[in-house]
Each structure stands twice: as structure tokens, then as C-alpha cells.
Amino acid sequence: MNEHVQTATSAPLFNPLAPEFIRDPYPHYARLRTTDPMHLTPLGMYVASRHAEVSLVIRDKRFGKDYPDRTRRRYGPDIMQEPMFRSFALTMLQQDPPDHTRLRGLVVKAFTARRVEDMRPRIQQIVDDTLDRIIPQGKMELIEDFAFRLPVTIICDMLGIPEEHREMFYTGSRNSGRILEPVPLSPEEIKQGNAANAMTEMYFHQLFELRRKNPGDDLTTQLVQAEEDGSKLSNEEMTANIVLLFGAGHETTVNLIGNGLLALHRHPDQLALLKANPALITNAIEEFLRYDSSVQMTGRVALEDIDDLGGKKIPKGESVLCLLGSANRDPAVYPDRPDSLDITRPKIRPLSFGGGIHLCLGAQLARIEAEVAIATLLRRLPDLKLDDAENPEWRPSFVLRGLKQLPASW
Q: What are the boundaries of each domain within the chain?
């Protein structure tokens, strides 16, 4: 897959990093669903594109993460000595039970429905403060000035990152998701990733010491003090999972807000409908997730031989790449114009947050952040116009789909 996803006849179906694919992957997905829905790539990975198979793989206990072995098969036997890969392997995102159960159990209390709903006033305050500052300017860059600051501030609150440390997080790079891509990293990218990993570890080790001396009502304090089954988390485990929570806690939400606003402005009838009926916002968020998912792909490994998955035998140890963005537009599940935005669509069940034991912890938080952000923006800036809704600049990423920038004025 580092070159092309191909059919058995070697006709390229798509190159996941080609500009035309990044701009609009959905026609390529439709072709894949029709011609080769359980596709075997030249690198030996299966690609599931239909809702039925994707939904099964992300929930079925016969599939797991098996991250170290999967990564060694792609990069060679010594790859787990690289700090960025070693750290990523310790995250709950890449762990199988029992370690996944232990790690997730330590943080799940921070994401209960009650605690997340209680954050709504704080979310509203951040959105209003941001707009108070920006509105007099008559223009903004929607991603950096608006969509980015809200979830970064909220996750900094949750992790207990002091106010005086936050500027570096507001101005930080948004390239951390590259490790998730199916296209392998180059030696130079691995070197850069290791350097970024070292800097991040240094900061969070200092934060751990701060929270040991000055405990707060935050997740970092909770992890520092945590004892699950009598064993504390190691510094390395804590760092890896705090970094995961920071990245996952803002990355997908930034993209959900940006992708949702772009979709609305490309569908003026839906924009007008939402402005006229603000109560539709909750269903609209589900439709944004379905229509243009922030996360386009997730992966699993067969933990045993699978006799039949979409007509294919999957041997134990083989990887299955699940195209969430494709599954979300499968006409078998959404027969009524799956490629159109419809904020009144009934029974929307997007797979954008994954499923099974790895269902995204912050799914409800992301939904509420996007709901408050988009609803408030439409209410306070009803005449907002996107400067280039037809040809916006996308980030060069396949797995994490989002806009690099989205200039707007009013």
C-alpha cells in the first residue's frame, strides 16, 4: 500500500497520498466497494470498504491490535527500538487486553456522560470568548483561529496543563498523526518523530512532578496517583497515554468542526435549514461525522484464522485496514443519497469513532464541542462566508482527514 491500492489486475484504484485522493476520497471508495470490497494489497494487507465488514472487524474479539508484531512486519525487526514507535506501542489505542483494559480503566471516569455534559458551560464560554475577540476583525482563519483553540483548551483543562504553558500547545505542529498512516514513514520522518517524542516526554515528566507536589482535579493527577491491581503506571506508560489523550482530544474535534462547516457551506440548502432550525444541530453533528469523517481508517490484526470475511479467508496475523469513511457512505446502510449531506437524515450511526473495546473515549466530548462551536458560530455570525469553499487546502493526510486552513469573512 506504500505505492497504490491495487486490484488483482494491477490497475491502481487509488494512491492514498495523491492530491486528488486527499481532496475527495469518496469516488475511489465507491469504486472499491463495488469492484473489490475485501481487497488484498500487494503488501499483504486486506482493505475492508463496506459497512458490514468494517463494522464486524472493529467490534469482533477475534481481531486485535498486535501492534509490535504488525509494525515489525512493515519496518523490520529493529523498529520497536525507535522511541516514537516504542512509546506509541504503550498507548491504550494500540494495546490488547489485559493491558488495554487496565489503561482504559484508569482514565474512563474522566469521560463519563455526566462529567462531559457538565463541561458544556466551559465549552460555551471558550467559544464566546474566542468570537468576542475575533468578530471585530471581520475575518478569520476558521481552523487556526476558531476550530483549533477550543478542543486544545478543553484537553489542557482536563490534563491540568497550567495556563502559562499552553501557548506552545496552541502553536504546536499538527503533524503528529503521520504515524497512523498506512504509508510507512521515511527514515527522516522517524528521526523527526523521535526528536518530537523526546521533547514531549521531557515536558510531561515535569508536569508529573508538578502534580505529585501539587495535586489537582485533573487526569494527570489521577494517573500519577493511580494504582490499578496494585501496580503504578510507569513514567513511560503515563507519558505515552497522556500524549495520546492530548492528540486524540483535539485532533478529531478540530477536523469535525472544520469538515462540518465546509460541508454546510457547500450545501446552502442545509446551511439555511440549520440556521432556521437550530434544534437540528445534534442530528447535524452525526451527519457531519458520517458525511466526511475526521478519521478515515483504523486497523486490526486477525488473532486467529477467519474463515470468511466478505468472501475472503483471513489468516491469523494478517492486517485488515478498515475504511471508516467508505463504510459511512455505504448505500447498503444509507440507501437515500449516501453521497449527499442531509442534516435531517434518520438513524445515522457513523463508525467515525471506531467500535468495540477501542470505541473513542472522547466521542461524546467531541460531539458536544462541535455542537456548541458550530451552533454558536451560525447564531453570532449568520452572514459568515467561506473565501474558497470549492477549493480549500487539505492536510496531506489520509487517516486523519482535515483542512489545513479555511479562511472566512463576514
A: 5-409
d(CA 30, CA 87): 36
**Could you tell me whether strands 319-323 and 46-48 are parallel, antiparallel, or unpaired per DSSP bridges?**
parallel
Q: Please enumerate in sequence order all residues whose Cβ is within 8 A of that of 355, keeping only pairs 6 or more positions apart, or say none.
A: 55, 58, 59
CB-side exposure of 311: number of CA atoms within 13 Å? Answer: 8
For residue 345, the SS3 value is: coil
The answer on pLDDT for 126 being more than 90 is yes
Q: Where are the alpha helices (DSSP H) in 267-310?
A: 268-276, 281-291
d(Cα 301, Cα 72) in Å, to the nearest integer?
Answer: 13
- Helix axis angle for 120-134 and 149-159, nearest 10°, is 140
Where is 240: in which H helix or E strand?
helix 235-266
Superfamily of domain 5-409, CATH level 4: Cytochrome P450 (1.10.630.10)
The amino acid at 395? R
230-265 pLDDT per residue, tens: 667 888 888 999 989 988 888 899 999 999 999 999
For residue range 72-105, what is the model confidence (pLDDT) as tens digits? 988 999 999 999 999 999 999 999 999 999 999 9
Cα 287 from chain centre = 16
pLDDT at 333: 98
Would you state the cell numbers that stand for residue 133, as one nine-digit string?
475577540
In which band, very low, low, confident or very high, does the pLDDT at 7 lie, cut at 50, 70 and 90?
very low
Percent of the chain whose pLDDT exceeds 90: 79
Distance CA 259, CA 252 (A): 10
CA–CA separation, 180 and 247 (whole Å):
12
Q: Residues 141, 145, 149, CA angle at the centre, nearest 5°?
A: 145
- pTM for the whole thing? 0.93
Ranges assigned E (strand) in 206-246: none
